[in-house]
């Protein structure tokens, strides 16, 4: 049996070795933990920076007095891009890969415009690199956008049994109003004698939109039974869009605010009105 002193020395040596190994492992783990924390802080900071640029960009659009529709357009399109692509490290190839996924040329071009505006703003405001500096816009091609015939307009009016909806369709067609312009009409904006409506268009510019006998008939009937408290419809923009979508589903006829705006221009052109006059009437 080994002497007791030797056993104590051996035990102490083993314990010392294990302690040193544990300290080495502990130091390694501590170092790794520090690196992970640093990396996490870095990632969080990058995320925060991206979110800040997004918020600051939208704030700059508000300061430029873009319309609520345009602001929503920027928020949705740019929000998706920043979700899928790191704006700080993105190169031209990354942006092109993002755009390629959209088969619709119009949609692809819309994303391109939003992303380019965002990067131009970052470059001008913060002096950051712009990966889209020499990037050309996607080709739109020659798209034939839909417009309605007079017959289709009358089918839409006949299909809906609500006099308010009939008035909205008639006014969209005869005035070429944008959705925001039509939504915000109040009773005092209507000049029944001259058949014009005062509207606030893009850039908060005041303008006057004409309307015809069809609108006069249905709008007069609607306001005879409805006392407005605010706009004359009792609907917001989404309420009008929802109504048009239901009508499109019921008739199979393309039915959205911008189609009516194109219809307004096309019907005037077919009636022999010159392009510059149509441009003025469409504000």
Can you walk me through this structure?
- Helix content is 65%, strand content 4%.
- By secondary structure, it is mainly alpha-helical.
- The protein folds into two domains: 16-138, Tyrosine recombinase, N-terminal domain (DNA polymerase, domain 1), CATH 1.10.150.130; 150-281, hpI Integrase, Chain A (Orthogonal Bundle), CATH 1.10.443.10.
- The chain has a three-stranded antiparallel beta sheet with strand order 1-2-3, with no helix packed on it.
- Helix 5 packs antiparallel against helix 6 and helix 6 (163-175) packs antiparallel against helix 8.
- It is elongated.
Span between termini: 108 Å
| Strand adjacency order, main sheet | 1-2-3
What helical percentage do the residues reach?
Answer: 55-70%
Shape field = elongated
Total domain modules: 2
Largest sheet: 3 strands, antiparallel
Q: Do you know the CATH architecture of the largest domain?
A: Orthogonal Bundle
Number of helices, counting only DSSP H or I runs of 4 residues or more = 11
Enumerate the spans where pLDDT stays under 50 for 5 or more consecutive residues: 32-51
User: Mean pLDDT, rounded to whole units?
Assistant: 79
Radius of gyration: 32 Å
Q: How many strands in all?
A: 3
What is the CATH top level name of the largest domain?
Answer: Mainly Alpha
Structural class: mainly alpha
CATH topology of the largest domain: hpI Integrase, Chain A
Strand/helix succession: HHHHHHHEEEHHHH
Percentage of residues in strands:
under 5%
The CATH H-level homologous superfamily of the largest domain: Intergrase catalytic core
């Amino acid at each position: 049996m080994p002497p007791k002193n030797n056993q104590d020395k051996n035990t102490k040596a083993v314990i010392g070795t294990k302690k040193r190994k544990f300290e080495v492992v502990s130091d390694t783990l501590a170092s790794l933990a520090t690196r992970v924390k640093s990396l996490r802080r870095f990632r969080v900071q990058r995320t925060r920076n991206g979110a800040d640029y997004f918020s600051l960009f939208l704030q700059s659009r508000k300061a430029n007095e873009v319309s609520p529709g345009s602001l929503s357009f920027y928020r949705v399109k740019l929000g998706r891009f920043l979700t899928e692509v790191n704006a700080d490290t993105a190169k031209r190839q990354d942006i092109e890969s993002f755009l390629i996924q959209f088969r619709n040329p119009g949609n692809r071009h819309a994303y391109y415009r939003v992303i380019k505006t965002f990067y131009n703003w970052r470059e001008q405001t913060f002096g950051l690199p712009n990966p889209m500096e020499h990037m050309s816009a996607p080709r739109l091609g020659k798209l034939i956008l839909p417009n309605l015939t007079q017959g289709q307009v009358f089918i839409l009016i006949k299909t809906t049994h609500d006099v308010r909806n009939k008035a909205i369709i008639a006014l969209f067609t005869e005035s070429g109003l944008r959705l925001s312009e039509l939504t915000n009409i109040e009773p005092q904006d209507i000049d029944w004698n001259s058949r014009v409506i005062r509207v606030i268009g893009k850039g908060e510019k005041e303008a006057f939109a004409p309307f015809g006998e069809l609108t006069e008939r249905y709008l007069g009937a609607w306001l005879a039974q409805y006392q407005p408290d605010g706009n004359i419809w009792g609907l917001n923009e989404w309420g009008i869009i929802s109504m048009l979508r239901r009508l499109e589903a019921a008739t199979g006829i393309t039915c959205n605010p911008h189609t009516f705006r194109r219809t307004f221009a096309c019907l005037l052109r077919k009636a022999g009105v010159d392009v510059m006059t149509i441009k003025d009437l469409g504000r």
